[in-house]
Amino acid sequence: MSERNIAPFAHVFLKLMQGPVYEEERSYWKDILSWQTELHKYLQQTGLQLVINEADGFARIVQPENDENSDRPLPRLMRKARLTYEATLLCIVLREALEEFDLKGTGTKLYLTQKEMKERLTLFFKERHNKSKLLKDLNKPINSLLSVGILRLTREDVANKELQQYEVKRVIKALVNNEKLEEIKTKLNLHVNPVQ
Fold it and tell me: What is the C-alpha separation between 40 and 85, in angstroms, rounded?
């Protein structure tokens, strides 16, 4: 394939198709900002949207829901990730932690250790059995959130996993907005404290 047939923004488009691109990825970030008009036009033709959040420093591609009245609905390119109950709970805890962090205004990146995540999770459990089961196997929900780009391992500690440190990526604010946060918290509250 000849290079002159390839769009000059192709490298950025392909990177975005792999997942969110963050401001720290300076060359991609710069190119996303400079090619954003062309990227918007191209993605719009394919039924996708480019979302750039300069305040939180990330860009991503989203696929809007199909119009119910469409004669030819587009197939889903991006599958919605189904998280387990435990991963959803951790996601909510991290989203709230990021909100608190932003209100304090002490920096731009939130880092939490596995131990800090455990401490925040314990607030959701009244029953000792459920709490100990989740906390014992916290690696599964953490790995789940690592794979979807919500967490990034920043310090590994093989000797003591509780001291491993993770960055909470700001894309979590787009994935779990305030309305969705309240909706999920209500459902979780019913799950944890069912009506008798």
Answer: 35
CA-atom Rg of the chain in angstroms: 19
Supply the CATH number for residue 40's domain: 1.10.10
8-13: long-range contacts at Cβ-Cβ below 8 A with a sequence spacing of 24 or more?
A: 8/35, 9/35, 9/38, 9/39, 9/42, 12/39, 13/39, 13/42, 13/43
Q: Who's near 124: CB < 8 A, 6+ residues apart? A: 89, 93, 188, 192
Structure tokens at 168: 């909470």
Other C-beta atoms lying within 10 Å of the C-beta of residue 135: 15
Q: Is the pLDDT of residue 164 over 60?
A: yes
Do 149 and 180 share a domain, yes or no?
yes
Reported as type and span, the H/E element at residue 51 is strand 49-53
Give the helix/strand (H/E) hosting 39.
Answer: helix 36-45
- Note the pTM of the prediction, 2 decimals: 0.73
Give the domain-ending residue among 22, 47, 62: 62
Is 37 part of any domain?
Answer: yes
24 with 112, same domain? no
| Angstrom distance (rounded) from CA 110 to CA 165 | 10
Total domains in the chain come to: 2
- Per the structure, the complete domain to which residue 173 belongs is given by 85-192
Q: What is the pLDDT of residues 67-97, one digit of tens each?
A: 777 778 777 776 666 778 788 888 889 998 9
